[in-house]
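Weekly modeling sync, notes
Attendees: S.R. (lead), two postdocs, one rotation student

Agenda item 3: backlog of single-chain predictions. S.R. asked that every request posted to the team notebook include the full sequence so nobody has to chase files. The rotation student volunteered to paste the first one in as an example of the format we agreed on. Action items at the bottom.

Example entry:
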Amino acid sequence: MMKKYIALLIVLFLTATPVEAQCAMCRAVLESETDNSIAQGVNNGIIYLMAVPYLLMGGLIWYIYKSRKKADKADN
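Predicted structure, as returned to the notebook:
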């Protein structure tokens, strides 16, 4: 069962496409600049801030799963 979830996650990560994570106001201000490196930095920062909560929740879910699995083995 767990192997199916891991395979699904691998497929999702391999098929991921780049996204633009700016709000409309940030995009308008950054598009007016001639240097796109600032806009790329803002995009990377937004994606970084978005990813951290998902990683923390994933770690918490993994920890709960492992502790329950360990408890089930101890009961048997």
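Discussion: group reviewed the output briefly. The longest helix spans residues 37-75.
Action items: rotation student to repeat for the remaining queue; S.R. to check formatting next week.
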